[in-house]
Amino acid sequence: MQTHSLGFPRIGLNRELKWATERFWQGGISEDLLLNTAKGLMTGNWRLQKEAGLDLVPAGDFSLYDHMLDMTATLGAIPNRFGFSGDKVDLDIYFRMARGSEGAKGTPAMEMTKWFDTNYHYIVPEFWPGQSFRLSYTWFFDQVREARRSGINAKAVIPGPFTYIHLGKSVDNDFDRWEHLDKIISVYAELLELLGKDCQWIQMDEPILVLDLDRHILDRMIPAYGRLAKAAGDARIMIATYFGEIVDPETVCMLPVSAIHADMVRAPAQLETILEHIPDHMILSLGTIDGRNIWRADLDRAVAQVDRARRAIGEERVMVAPSCSLLHVPIDLSGEKMLDPEIRAWMAFAGEKCLEVRAVADMASGKSCDLLVESRKILEGRRTCKHIINSEVGNRLASLTGDMLRRNSPFPERKKCQNRQLNLPLFPTTTIGSFPQTREIRSVRKRYVRGEVDHAIYTRNIKEYIEFAVEMQEKAGLDVLVHGEPERNDMVEYFAGHLDGFCLTENGWVQSYGTRCVKPPVIYGDVSRPAPITVEWSIYAQSLTRKPMKGMLTGPVTILRWSFVRDDQPERDTCRQIALAIRDEVCDLEKAGMKIIQIDEPALREGLPLRQKDWAGYLNWAVDAFKLATGGVRDHTQIHTHMCYSEFNEIIGAIAEMDADVISMEASRSRMALLEAFGDYQYPNDIGPGIIDIHSPRVPSVAELTELLRLALEVIPPERLWVNPDCGLKTRSWPEVEAMLQNMTAAAMRMRKRMEKQIK
């Protein structure tokens, strides 16, 4: 019974790829050194998986930035603004597509959005009439050939053509991007012909098969994959689905491929349906080990699934794997020295999950396995652990009432009250919250955690940073200020470190996008807030200015979604526990005199189930969690929220139900296209569409920002339009931030003057 994985973390145990890539961007290392660093990480990943006992090791899953961007480069599908000659894509063009640039070759980056319901972001492919495609990037088969030279039994991994097109966007709204399918399949066929010479298996990722797809897409898959199977020669094609249940298993089982992979963690019930339809020649890969969470697997359950398939179709036609790519979990538990030993024993990172895959296959084949005995003992210990349950939290949840989910007055009345108190100008300017995390501030924070500096020194450094941030904002002319969040390593991890029921890892890094990595905290038990978290810093920041200062919090849904969540109770219940903790913080900030409080929920759309039939249930409890967190304040307290990199059309009604006084969101890369949903819905509250792409070093001009605001006015009335960047400015440098904010406030001033002239 063969074993394999669908993909592995790319960044390195100590984020080596991040540091090398950022040094390359800054001119500190050569392209050769960057590529050598990447090669070292790739070969290390292959070796780890091989030593764990996997029979097929993925190659092609490694990326310098994003696997969908790799496919765009491979197809030569480069937007015209990047000046691609049609020959070979080099790293200059590759990274400019991801990040944009300024200067003589200044171009906006390609759009970025969430990969299904994960916190990973991919670069969105662009399609337009008359577009041509040709093999222009050798990244995929370079990896496969290197794996072969390294003695690895490699399985090539590439995004499937249907997922690639479906997740892209048409630059011209009237253009049907599916018109390019035949041309794209032709280039894929060339790629598969090359890959097939160096490997026995080619994994084509088609996770869109778990979505509600139009019939015309499914109908075109059978002939398209017929062409690709022929092009692959002797290599066998595996269609990989994950993150949910295959919507039409009968059609998928008719595809002319050698194997399909199905997610048995997210959708275990689909096994029987697949077994009913799978043809005699096809191999079934079972994703029995959770690739999305860090808990040890229930090996008995996993073995039972594999055994059911083995008895139905034969052992030689069953493969065992994680549910999806292990990109979404940290690399190895060996780097975790400070975790509570009991809680650490409950966990499995990517390396440990490969061992679990091997163990499941061995046990299903009748072999004995020490890991099974150990796993049973640990899982039983977790079920009976007294640290998980907090009766006070349970009692508080049981006493919730509907009144706790509502503000005292409707938005129009609240707005009048807030206008009198805040007295803000038309087009008020603000930022989303964070400012650059300088080397100095990271160092003092780390040294404080290690006990190398005392509380007084730490506090002085944080206050000095806040003072500088306030001074810079006032100099730039912002109307509503933030303290800059120098005390926070991450918008979720920071709060998790102050809440009971969470634990933090030392080195549990996961890629979010490009070189941006996060360390998701772990929710292992009932959540509560033992003491105020942000009040001290907010009070100090407000004391430095007469302008309103925002209290900055992360919302309950985002804390839930960007953590590794306990799997022993419904997510809804865990989210309500977090919401009550945030509610306590919101009320304490109001008591301390904060007039504006922002509760960010960038993950609300991310958490939307992949099937439309499941949306209503999720949105009901997710929106209620936000309302529970914010429902305890008076009318004059202005509640903001922030969302980013999401398609809002499908959930605009739920966003309105949240009833935040002001919502800000990413909009610059789409040139305000995301606002169409708010206009069509006639969204009733204030909106701040982001006009600066904070993921790019490019500083847009005043004229460009003014034009974006003009476009926003086509959807939003001027009295309800705020001016802000797309997201927090944590990843930018101070010179970039100052230039961006000065141009942003100048654009707002231009718009105010235009409105004054129109009124006169």
Protein model, in words:
This protein is of the alpha/beta class. Helices cover 42% and strands 12% of the residues. The protein is built from 27 helices and 21 strands. It has an 8-stranded parallel β-sheet with strand order 1-12-11-10-9-8-6-2. It has a 5-stranded parallel β-sheet with strand order 17-18-19-20-21. Strand 3 and strand 4 (121-123) form a beta hairpin. Helix 1 (16-25) runs antiparallel to helix 2 (31-51), helix 7 (181-195) packs parallel to helix 8 and helix 22 packs parallel to helix 23. The termini are far apart.
Average pLDDT works out at 94
Distance between the termini: 79 Å
Number of domains: 2
Helix content: 40-55%
Task: Using the coordinates above, name the CATH class of the largest domain.
Answer: Alpha Beta
Largest sheet: 8 strands, parallel
| Number of β-strand runs | 21
Uncertain segments are none
Task: Supply the number of helical segments.
Answer: 27
The outline comes out as globular
- Using the coordinates shown, work out and report the CATH topology of the largest domain: TIM Barrel
Q: What descriptive keywords fit this protein?
A:
760 residues, alpha/beta, TIM Barrel, eight-stranded parallel sheet, 21 strands, globular
Short description:
This protein is of the alpha/beta class.
Q: SSE layout and pairings?
A:
Blueprint: E1 2-3, H1 16-25, H2 31-51, E2 57-59, H3 67-75, H4 91-99, E3 112-114, E4 121-123, E5 126-127, H5 139-149, E6 154-159, H6 161-166, E7 169-170, H7 181-195, E8 201-205, H8 215-231, E9 236-240, H9 249-252, E10 259-263, H10 270-277, E11 283-289, H11 299-313, E12 318-322, H12 341-344, H13 350-364, H14 370-383, H15 391-398, H16 411-422, H17 439-449, H18 455-476, H19 493-496, E13 500-503, E14 510-513, E15 516-518, E16 522-528, H20 535-543, E17 550-554, H21 556-561, H22 571-591, E18 596-600, H23 615-630, E19 638-643, H24 652-658, E20 662-665, H25 676-681, E21 686-689, H26 702-713, H27 734-759
Parallel strand pairs: 1-12, 2-6, 5-7, 6-8, 8-9, 9-10, 10-11, 11-12, 17-18, 18-19, 19-20, 20-21
Antiparallel strand pairs: 3-4, 13-16, 14-15
Helix pairs in contact: 1-2, 7-8, 11-13, 17-18, 22-23, 23-24, 26-27
